[in-house]
Amino acid sequence: MLLIACLLCLALIDLDTYLLPDAITLPLLWAGLLFNLVYEHVPLEQAVLGATFGYLILWLVYHGFKLLTGKEGMGFGDFKLLAACGAWFGAESLFTILLTASFSGIFFGLFVQLLRRNEFTAPFPFGPCLVLGACCWMAGLDISAWFTP
Predict the structure, then answer these.
(1) What's the rounded Cα separation, in Å, for the pair 60 and 66?
(2) Which of 47, 48, 84, 143 is the most buried (most CB within 10 A)?
(3) What is the spatial distance between Cα 148 and Cα 81, in angstroms, rounded to a whole number?
């Protein structure tokens, strides 16, 4: 319940402020590692790899985008949120969480841009999309299975 409450708070804060505060994301990451140390929802090794790869995947996307465009494409809070999800659910969850977040981000981003009637360069928060991906993983909705034979 605490995990879901934190994810919901993060989604709402990001929608309002475009920030994912370290005061929530970092304790959530450590709590996921400690939870898996004690209860072993996923093996601790998978939790550590999930946290590491969760951070690195979005870090690489951020730096690749910045190298190609000269602009920042996302905030560091997104890295930390995906790392926290990886700590709770393990490395195997990351693909599904990112795939769900990416698809929902496309639809959410287009919807927000149409509402704003702006150019398609205005930022939108990606944290709620990551939260949706994590919630789908928790609910057992694996959309990555749709793409595998």
Answers:
(1) 10
(2) 84
(3) 27
Indicate the residue type of 71: K
Q: pLDDT of 65-80, one tens digit each?
A: 999 999 998 999 999 9
Q: Is the pLDDT of residue 26 over 70?
A: yes
Sign of the four-CA dihedral 27, 83, 120, 71: positive
H helices of 1-149, in order, are 2-17, 22-38, 44-69, 76-89, 94-116, 127-139
Euclidean distance between CA atoms 54 and 69, whole angstroms: 23
140 phi and psi angles, rounded to 5 deg = 85, 15
Q: Is the pLDDT of residue 144 over 80?
A: no
Q: Which of 145, 138, 146, 24 is nearest to 83 (CA)?
A: 24
* Residue 107: alpha-carbon gap to chain centroid: 16
Supply the Cα-derived Rg of the chain in whole angstroms.
15
**Looking only at Cα atoms, what is the longest distance across the chain?**
49
Q: Minimal CA–CA distance to 86: which of 126, 128, 44, 125?
A: 44
